[in-house]
Amino acid sequence: MIEFKNVTKKYDNQVVALNDISIKIEPGEFVFLVGPSGAGKSTFIKMLLKEVDPTMGEIIVGNKSLRGITRKDVPYYRRKIGMVFQDYRLIPNLNVYENVAFAMRVIDATPKEIRRRVPMVLALVGLSDRSKSFPNELSGGEQQRVSLARAITNNPTILIADEPTGNLDPETAKDIMRLIMDINKAGTTVLMATHAKDIVDSSKRRVIALEKGRIVRDEKKGRYEFDAEN
Length: 230
Known about the structure:
Layout: E1 2-10, E2 16-25, E3 30-34, H1 41-48, E4 56-61, E5 64-65, H2 74-78, E6 81-85, H3 96-106, H4 111-124, H5 140-152, E7 158-162, H6 170-185, E8 189-193, H7 197-203, E9 206-211, E10 214-219
Parallel strand pairs: 3-8, 3-9, 6-7, 7-8
Antiparallel strand pairs: 1-2, 1-4, 4-5, 9-10
């Protein structure tokens, strides 16, 4: 479970990124986080990752308050969260297999665990035949599949996807969304921040809409409902 209790974030420059946010996301839910640029989506995600702390309020993840997590414990907390970015963030001098394996090495997985798990995850995202390819040899869609494989290789309970289809053509975006939906069906909680109106409208999933740091809509089978350029 993810819960924000009366969370406000005011930065040093006096910008209020989030203003008295209260929300609950249940285990296994798929939630779109939408809103115009500057609405507070990035701050919402950074707080879940414990990159920034609330000015006021409390955040609970998995029945544990993030207040009690010390700086040295943050890497252990993040192990339960997979992260997918718009710009992929692959390591250019590592091949596909090595990029995914790197995420496991960071948490001290054994070589045996890595040899067992990485091929399974690459098969799941349809990249078994590209394991020895380097990022610059892949299409954008293939790079995002690697990013997705890396995000789920440690069996996270939460997957955060920040504009995962933003750099992809419509057909490739659909393929990536199918993969993310399959991951959600397997029990992973998914939070996806996006401006992709067509994807949100066609998915008929829960939509939390932010505007000027406040929740303006929270709908079970919601729609995007912002201008296309936002």
